[in-house]
Design brief:
The protein is α/β, with parallel strands linked by helices and 259 residues long. The chain has a single domain, classed as Rossmann fold, CATH 3.40.50.720. Helix content is 41%, strand content 17%. The protein is globular and about 60 Å long. The protein starts with a strand and ends in a 17-residue tail after the last strand.
Length: 259
């Protein structure tokens, strides 16, 4: 099928997408920052599925490391990459009052600058598109940016993270324009899917229960969205919010009880 790089692929949704792509016949470059043991475990699982896999370490806040990651991944797998999933993310709380230059740089660097640099390098090595039986172009490359449903439902919370994800959504659309017809670029916007490291179970459960559908998403919902983009050659520049309808929430204190 081809070869893919997933950033932040040693755990959580990155791991789920790596295993999903391997099951679909892709060889996988498993990117990690500090969790080498976890990354090697994912590599072993993929190799157990009969696919080639390699762990590649990089600090995505380091421009030099980021700029060569695509070439390192392609070399490790012995072929050009045809799928890039920009999944790795820093997600830390700040507000307009508490944001600092450091929080700005960490969120912009991990959530926007790194995907931009990786997409540039990915496009430079991705095979050109083909043509189908009707003579129309078919993209060979696919970039998936993991965004966030909050770009559809803005709040002042997680200020610099939100700004970075809004930038990533803008980049998804403009890159889709700039890289067509050889590469498609789309986004997935998770909502409450996996419990956060600083989040209590009660808070996470309540967050899922208070979505429009009364439920959040699961790993399988995220991989299903990935599968849709893989199987849809006519789709680019789109965002699928896989969030139980969280971005549509309307029963908020400002409207409840108002005629």
């Amino acid at each position: 099928m081809g070869a893919a790089l997933i950033t932040g692929a040693s755990a959580r949704l990155g791991k789920a997408m790596a295993l999903y792509l391997a099951a679909r016949g892709y060889d996988i470059a498993v990117h990690y920052h500090s969790g080498e043991e976890a990354a090697l475990t994912v590599v072993a699982e993929i190799e157990g599925m009969g696919r080639k896999a390699h762990a590649v370490q990089a600090d995505l806040l380091n421009e030099d490391a980021t700029s060569v990651l695509i070439d390192r991944a392609a070399a490790a797998l012995g072929q050009p990459l045809t799928v890039l999933i920009n999944n790795a993310s820093i997600f830390e709380y700040d507000s307009l009052e508490s944001a600092t230059l450091d929080s700005w740089n960490r969120h912009i660097g991990s959530n926007l600058r790194a995907p931009f640099v990786l997409t540039q390098a990915f496009a430079a090595q991705c095979p050109k598109g083909a043509r189908d039986d009707a003579g129309e172009p078919v993209a060979r490359g696919l970039v998936i940016n993991m965004i966030d449903q909050r770009v559809r439902k803005l709040t002042p919370e997680f200020m610099t993270y939100t700004i970075a994800k809004m930038g990533l959504w803008a980049f998804t659309q403009t890159a889709a324009q700039g890289l067509a017809p050889d590469i498609r670029v789309n986004g997935i916007g998770p909502g409450p899917t996996l419990q956060g490291a600083r989040q209590s179970k009660d808070h996470f459960d309540a967050q899922r229960a208070n979505t429009v559908l009364g439920r959040g998403a699961n790993r399988s919902d995220i991989t299903a969205a990935l599968g849709y983009f893989l199987d849809s050659p006519g789709v680019t520049g789109q965002l699928l919010c896989v969030d139980g309808g969280q971005h549509l929430a309307w029963q908020t204190p400002d409207v409840l009880g108002v005629e």
